[in-house]
Amino acid sequence: MKKLLSILILLTLSLSPPRGLVASTRIDSLINALHTARYDTVKINILYELCREYSASKPDKAIKYAKRGLIIAGQSANRGLIISGFNNIGLVYRNKYDYNQAIQYHFQALNISRIFKDTIATGWSYVEIGNDYYWQSNYSDAAVYYGKALAVFKKSNFKHGIAVCLNNLGMLCEKRGDYLKAIEYYLKTSDKYEESGNREGIAWCHELIANIYMHQGNYSGAMKYYLLSLSIYDDLNDKKGIALSYNNIGLVHNSQGDYPGALEYFFKALNLFEQLGNELKIATTSSYIGNAYTKKSELEQALNYQEKALGIREKIADKNGLVYSLTGIGDILNKSGKSSEAVKYLQRSIEIAKELGMKAALKDSYECLSVAYAQVNDYKNAYDYYQKYSGLKDSLYNEKTSGKISEMQAIYEARNKEKEIELLTKEKALQSLELKKNNIANYALYGCILLALILAFLSIMGYRKKQKANKLLKKKVERQTLELSESNGHLQTEIEERKEGENALHKSERDYRLLIEAMKEGVIQVNKDDSIQFANEQFCKMVGYPDNELIGKNGAQLFLNGIDKVFMGEFKSAREKGSSRQNIVQLRKKDGGFIRVIISGAPNYDEHGNITGSTAVVTDISKIMEYEENLDSINQELNAFMYKASHDLMGPLSSSVGIVNMCRESTNDKNMINNLDMISVSLNKLDKILHDLIEITLIRQGKLKIVPVEIKLLLEDIVHTFGRYPDIEKTDIIIDNKLRKPVMSDAEILRIILRNLFENALKYRKIGARNSFIKITAVRKNKYIIIEVADNGIGIPEEHHQNIFKMFVRASTMSTGSGLGLYSVKNAVEKLSGTIELKSREKEGSTFTLNLPEFKNYN
Amino acid sequence: MKTKTRYKTAMLIDDNEIDNVINSKMLESTGFAKRIQIYTNGLSALEFFKNLERDKYLNRDMIPDIVFLDINMPLMDSFQFLQEFGRLDKSITKNCKIAILTTSVNPSDKERSLNDKRVMSFINKPLTKEGLDRL
């Protein structure tokens, strides 16, 4: 059974089956492969494989290998391999019979599987824990974990897993003696394998079923299932499977007393095993043959085969097998009257059996030896060994009985734990009655019913006591396990959180890298000594260096010329105070040329807040500067053109005006004078437009010339220039200057503004109104000069307020101007970095409020 | 025509011949000057002054009392002219007033012109009676 289960476990971990003696060469090749393995995954897999190879022979070495693999798996965060690492270590501990350790490691695997929400791995971990309990003979807990695994696998419809769970539950039932239930499970398992198309699995199930029938003495049933599995192995051409089936069939024949039939199959099997070179099985089969010949009383043949088996078993150190072979030979020698020889074999057999604790085999050896001594007339020894034989037999029986009772107990305990087991227990109860009947019959046969009953009673009592203590112990263990798994859980959660954090960090780092590489700007990272730590592709392209040439070089020395070095030095010290700044510098390219860039830097800190260097984003502005310069020169050209054009128009215009004036001087013809006046008006209008245009170009082009300006004088001068304006005397012009000191500003620009505003106020008076006024107030307020030009003229309709400062807008039909007056005012105000506001109501008047900053210095 | 004139001789230096006609008429009609000399560029005017400087027997009445000088002219602009004019013998230049007569409204032109102490006035074209009165 142990062998079967371990094969199953190996299946679950997709391992190759054990290879017996071939192992050592395989281990060598694995170790070789380990040295040459490049990838972590390969290395880990080899280490695990080594662990499995060593798990039986050198468990400590196996654990070492597994732990090495586990460490690498942990480093590379390969969760699948971490989980299987824990499982592997658990398996080795199980092989060492250290079930508690095994359970602990499997719980670790379980926790990790759960954390990663890996349902399949979770399922397998449950299975492994179940297996651990199974080997610990804790069947109720085993059932619980198999049940959990089954639920998990069913949820994800993982057929192979479901099949394994059903199979293990079946074995559990078999262990408890619930054969019907076991067969039922095996059949279910077989169905699952059929669904997933695993024919080997089906064959395996048939074998299990057949084993049960065999155990129950239902030879026809056993034969049927062994034949079924044989046919599958035949189909699959699985020679080992076929040979094993032959052996099984042979055993059925043997049990039925059909020795020639048995021998036929055993020989077939032997033939195949010899082909396969499977020495262990050759020995086993030879032993079977020997037994069959013994039964047939063909002692010579029997001895041949038993000795063959013995030879092989000695060679491969199969101690288990040796016991059987030695006893078998002893039996043969007894039967052939060579009892004195038999004694040697049997004594050795007893020695080994005692060593291995093989009680059943020991019992047989005692019996044989007793017979041998009797035959050589050594009655004392014969009696002694008979006593030993019968004592062992009794104790074995008691063990068997109490074992069965304890199993029953376990079933009751498990009642609440699992539904399937509940069903199982009912059947169990029925069966236990049968069992009791059998027991009574057996007691009667020995003629010590009463004694046995008392013994049974005592053993039950003893068992119960033990059970109680066990329960307490178990509870303690459970609690500790729970605490352990809880704290493990915490630890795992912590690890998971940290891992998540790390993952997030990795992700964000990756994102940043991507971002940095995708940026059009250059990114460069330097340490405190200006040594370049990182430069993105874009930066390398900018300066024409390959990436690998830049790392470790001194950035300042490589790229900066004298002035910029000083400049960047200041920049750096400011940066070290923690501020991030921008700077325009020139960088020297690899080819010696320069590019103009904006550097925006920010300091880098380590985890203690110390500055470790800085990261800078570098934007190539050579092109932008070029465009800007271009644009600037185009603008200047345009301005110059406008100025020149206006100016050149001015010449002929003034000539025309001069000619008109000349004509007027030299004629008295009234008609002529009228016409000349009309020409004059037109020419004046043209002159005004040209003046405005020139004014605007001057405002835009010229540099500010800051001088102290006496606003009062300026205003008076402006008013004076309008001295000849028609009807100016009918308007009340009030200048309210509250400025005591001159204003620091550009006199010409101020003049343009105020003249235009005054002219507008004058122009748009109410015709014929008697109380017309223009009031100009100037005050200083919070370092601002506020000049208000107010009138009670025709006002500006609300809808024009938005557009009044735009080019060529004339808001009134009365307008005779160019539509440039307020536009140039706006330009002029902006030139002085001031603002202008309009408050006006139609027919009530307008107020323009200037808000001008005062300049500090001359120029 | 008024008989009394303000100045004996006035000189117009302007590349615009129409302006020269208008301005000379204006100077005549207002009785501003008795005699008017016209040069269409600074160089030829300068040559005239240099001849006066060389030939001491030439009539000193020929030296203009006032020069109306345009700014923008080919070959030599007003500023270059004034520079050369400054290098002439003081005897010739000391009684010679200069007025800038231009279409330029550029304040910098005005300022730069008035910075030269020989320049007594900055007048915008066209030359008017009022403008002459203000001189």
Describe the structure.
The complex is a heterodimer of chains A (859) and B (135). In chain A, 69% of the residues lie in helices and 10% in strands. Chain A is built from 31 helices and 12 strands. Chain A starts with a helix and ends in a 6-residue tail after the last strand. With 135 residues, chain B is of the alpha/beta class. Helix content of chain B is 40%, strand content 22%. Chain B is built from 6 helices and 5 strands; from the N terminus they run E-H-E-H-E-H-H-E-H-E-H. In chain B, strands 2-1-3-4-5 form a 5-stranded parallel beta sheet, sandwiched between helices. The chains are: A alpha+beta (859), B alpha/beta (135). At the A-B interface, helix 27 and helix 28 of A face helix 1 of B.
User: Could you report the average pLDDT of chain B, rounded to the nearest whole number?
Assistant: 87
The strand count of chain B comes to 5
Shape of chain A: rod-shaped
Radius of gyration of chain B: 14 Å
Percent helix of chain B: 40-55%
Biggest sheet strand line-up of chain A: 2-1-5-4-3
Order of helices and strands of chain B: EHEHEHHEHEH
Low-confidence region ranges of chain A: 1-21
Structural class of the secondary elements of chain A? alpha+beta
State the helix count of chain B.
Answer: 6
Strand line-up across the major sheet of chain B: 2-1-3-4-5
Distance between the termini of chain B: 20 Å
Biggest sheet character of chain B? 5 strands, parallel
Q: What is the rounded distance between the termini of chain A? A: 106 Å
Shape designation of chain B: globular
Low-confidence stretches of chain B: none
What does the oligomeric state look like here? heterodimer
Mean pLDDT across the residues of chain A is: 82
Strand content of chain A: 5-15%
Helical amount among residues of chain A, as a percent range? 55-70%
